[in-house]
């Protein structure tokens, strides 16, 4: 196929549930590519000599190589090409913001639609699962050295996977009652089915990783106790669970006001939350979108999203924004809440103000500024803030580990070693809230550094 024929192929679209089919369940909305569609989409890749897509991938996946192997129907070989750099392609392919990473760098996206790299990666990962293929490389014989991993999110899973396959005996400690960290309690099933997370857990257990849920290090178990129990090294991958507040009077004591992370965590672990029929979600990221879509599936009748910037500035995935509008959520842009309205401690509404784009700030984004006299009121039974998260480090006086003013751990930028030589950290607990791919990348780096430390090389 010549380049003119390649350029004539339009970007292929995945199979999806239509809105009427998905509002009363948590079934996965995007069904991905079938084999014929994946093969057509793979032909769109130009196999660039200088692949910008690889530079756009935080993990550095060899994207042209795995796509070329996919074209040749060497699906298993293509999958293992991804696994050379990524520990969890079945998850990254579903939840990473590809439009801002690999696909955002794709040369075809300059004048056309980029190659659907994420969907091609997902096709390979799903093909492996559907065909019952082994998802883990061969485990090394145990070397008798114990490692503790705190947190079972993407960074922790990656460290446990990498070190267990080098022969270390890894134990993962998770404070939540479920495995997966924010993958399980922050991302709904319709974006990340639980059997996919389960496949990652099974792969770890096949190599002898022990997972203990419901244990909070710093409360139930201290870092010094882990050291006394013979753990040679510890990885801190606790994520960013604490929600940022709106800063409005009455926010913490008004019934019906809560954070997006708390709401998702409760619903996705099986709790029922009945706060009324009218829900206002504040924020423009994927958490805000997920909160709105989960609220719809939980029976709330009127759900709206309030965002203080423009649609073009929303950090959420464009496909997620498209889906939430398909499902009937009203999006109000250039507006922000200013006052909580309540009667007898119960939310009744939200006073808001219109915004306009101001001058660019240090990041280059135009800072939204209020329009005087533009206040308006939205009646609401629930107000859910999804305006970002922050890190709350492990509180453990027995082994103080240095942290930055914003609560993240101080680490060596190369080795990810903390101020305590046998403790390493990575993912959101170092970077602040970031993508799954960046957490995986740090997990890989930390695992290599921990291995070198335990072998006396650093």
Note down, in words, how this protein is organized.
By secondary structure, this protein is of the alpha/beta class. The chain is built from 18 helices and 18 strands. The chain has helices at 3-8, 19-22, 35-42, 52-56, 63-71, 75-83, 89-95, 102-105, 117-130, 154-164, 182-185, 194-206, 223-228, 260-268, 286-297, 318-326, 428-431, 436-454, and strands at residues 15-16, 30-32, 146-150, 169-174, 210-213, 231-236, 242-243, 257-259, 278-282, 302-307, 330-333, 335-343, 346-360, 366-370, 376-379, 382-385, 389-390, 423-425. The strands form five sheets. Strands 5-4-3-6-18 form a five-stranded parallel β-sheet. The chain has a five-stranded parallel β-sheet with strand order 8-16-9-10-11. The longest helix has 19 residues, at 436-454. The mean pLDDT is 93.
């Amino acid at each position: 196929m010549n380049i003119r024929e390649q350029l004539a192929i339009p970007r292929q679209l995945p199979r999806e549930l239509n809105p009427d089919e998905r509002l009363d369940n948590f079934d996965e909305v995007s069904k991905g590519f079938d084999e014929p569609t994946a093969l057509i989409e793979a032909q769109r890749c130009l196999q660039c000599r200088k692949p910008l897509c690889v530079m756009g991938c935080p993990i550095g996946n060899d994207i042209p190589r795995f796509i070329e192997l996919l074209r040749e129907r060497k699906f298993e070989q293509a999958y293992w090409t991804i696994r050379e750099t990524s520990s969890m392609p079945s998850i990254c392919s579903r939840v990473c913001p590809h439009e801002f990473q690999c696909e955002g760098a794709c040369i075809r996206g300059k004048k056309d639609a980029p190659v659907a790299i994420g969907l091609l990666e997902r096709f390979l990962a799903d093909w492996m699962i559907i065909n019952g293929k082994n998802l883990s490389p061969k485990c090394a014989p145990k070397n008798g050295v114990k490692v503790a991993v705190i947190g079972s999110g993407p960074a922790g899973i990656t460290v446990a996977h990498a070190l267990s396959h080098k022969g270390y005996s890894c134990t993962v400690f998770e404070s939540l009652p479920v495995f997966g960290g924010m993958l399980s309690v922050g991302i709904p099933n319709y974006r990340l089915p639980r059997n996919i997370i389960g496949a990652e857990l099974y792969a770890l257990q096949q190599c002898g990783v022990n997972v203990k849920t419901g244990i909070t290090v710093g409360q139930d178990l201290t870092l010094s106790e882990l050291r006394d129990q013979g753990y040679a090294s510890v990885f801190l991958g606790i994520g960013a669970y604490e929600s940022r507040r709106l800063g409005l009077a009455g926010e913490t004591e008004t019934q019906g006001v809560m954070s997006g992370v708390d709401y998702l965590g409760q619903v996705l672990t099986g709790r029922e939350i009945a706060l009324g029929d009218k829900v206002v979600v504040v924020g423009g990221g994927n958490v805000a979108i997920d909160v709105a879509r989960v609220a719809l599936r939980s029976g709330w009748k009127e759900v709206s999203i309030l965002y203080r910037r423009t649609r073009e500035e929303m950090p959420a995935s464009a496909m997620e924004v498209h889906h939430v509008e398909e499902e009937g959520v009203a999006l109000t842009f250039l507006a922000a809440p200013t006052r909580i309205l309540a009667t007898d401690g119960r939310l009744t509404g939200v006073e808001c103000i219109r915004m306009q784009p101001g001058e660019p700030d240090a990041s280059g984004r135009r800072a939204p500024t209020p329009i005087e006299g533009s206040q308006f009121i939205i009646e609401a039974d629930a107000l859910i803030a999804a305006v970002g998260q922050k890190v709350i480090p492990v509180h453990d006086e027995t082994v103080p580990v240095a942290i930055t003013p914003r609560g993240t751990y101080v680490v060596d930028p190369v080795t990810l070693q903390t101020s305590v030589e046998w403790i390493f950290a990575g993912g959101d607990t170092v970077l602040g809230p970031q993508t799954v791919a960046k957490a995986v990348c740090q997990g890989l780096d930390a695992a290599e550094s921990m291995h070198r430390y335990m072998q006396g090389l650093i």
